[in-house]
Design a protein that fits this description.
The structure is a homotetramer.
Chain A: E1 3-4, E2 12-17, H1 33-48, H2 53-60, E3 62-73, E4 82-92, E5 96-105, E6 108-121, E7 126-127, H3 132-140
Antiparallel strand pairs in A: 1-4, 2-4, 3-6, 4-5, 5-6, 6-7
Chain lengths: ~140, ~140, ~140, ~140
């Protein structure tokens, strides 16, 4: 039903800048905000594949929801840092995709995450198959 | 079409606590987050009047949107502070309400805001009259 | 070095209200924002024990940082929902505390989290023992 | 003491993408989040001039704080929109800068803001002159 994506051609990279909105009184990026950074990377990976969540929502009444996330925080990021987010697909199921995502500042690994997203129909929020054309693009790592 | 609410019985008070999520690397509450605090106060004022935005949205396809906001920042708030938000109605129109809102920490005035919200219909986002029963409750300052 | 807290008297409960700031275009609470809710519960649990992070930071130059978080999302929360956050201590080490945290809306379990926080010294961010008086309060579940 | 910057060469442009984190249950960008977008534009304008707030904070113990903001919301932005933020300097004083900032989606003007930032010293938060070399760069609109 699901399969290892051993052949996914290469990880996807996305850069984000740390702004004051991302920091907290500890002087570093607030840990919850890494979820936003990782989300942006997944969104841009979908966009690279020609998939927008807006289209999914308006034309198919389906959305991707996050069903699981885990993050290990290794080192802090600070104001003005430029972070590189690296995304690997770990597994693609019919209605879900599992990602391994890492945040780096240069050679320093700041945070590592596992994220599972599930495609659900609205408004009942039940799992629904990812459109097959999109699944194929995800597996091949190429746009339409 | 609109009128001064000279007789609004008394200002509405709401307390919020400052958490790490609200702060920034300057060690103080991030200025944009006062808009959240003021929003919470308006929401709780509506709830006190027996009005929930969820109900407005689902039963009438109307929502309140903010059309204007201005804030003067006078003094910073810090982690663990308890803030008191004071809300006055300045003007009620058929489809809009203007508020004066202040944030205090004890006797210290931290920020003052003017906020105008407009009631609009979905999905076209055009101004639409606030339900008259709700207008009356706002003017009288009492629940149903 | 660390021990199971089998005798921790009872879980800690904290209620939060869902405001528009917490939601996203899917019409539900944005998943990253549960980390804020869980953080508020931990902060209030510390406050109940007579411990404030502000004091820890200013008097001892130590802060609690989150080193690991994992969340399973089971059901969505919506605008105006009142959520109950339930916090259990799973393990207390010399410089770290592990929590199990759950979010409920009435009888519905919305999200479950595991969170590990580490006490570190500033500015070098190295693990440093939690003050022993505070450790004792955490283990006993009572204030000073 | 302050002067109109009639000769500021040209407005500064910065693009941002709307992610799910920026939206609310109304299906549009949450109004408070425009303050983040406008902040990012000011930060990138400073960076263009060779000025980073991190440097200001660590080497001079000074920070820019927002003392006033007002925003008129004209039209909503949605998920996946790319917004262009246009920044004009309205006035430069010895310790403050006033900006006019606009948000556009293509030809549609979404929001207009006035923002005043003041340079203050830490930790007393009193106004302090912006370093003269930086003032000159702001007035000339060029980097060092």
């Amino acid at each position: 039903m699901s399969k290892r994506v051993s052949g996914f051609p290469s990880p996807f990279h996305w850069k984000v800048r740390v702004y004051i909105e991302d920091t907290d009184a500890g002087g570093v990026v607030f840990y919850a905000n890494y979820l936003n950074f990782f989300e942006r990377a997944r969104t841009e990976w979908l966009r690279r594949l020609g998939i927008t969540q807006q289209e999914l929502m308006s034309s198919l009444s389906q959305v991707f929801v996050v069903s699981h996330v885990s993050v290990d925080y290794l080192a802090p990021a600070r104001l003005d840092d430029e972070l590189t987010l690296v995304l690997h697909i770990e597994r693609i199921g019919g209605a879900s995709v599992s990602f391994s995502q890492r945040a780096w500042r240069g050679e320093v690994n700041l945070a590592n995450a596992k994220v599972k997203v599930v495609c659900v129909s609205l408004p009942d929020m039940r799992p629904k198959a990812i459109p097959s054309a999109w699944l194929k693009r995800m597996q091949d790592g190429v746009s339409a």
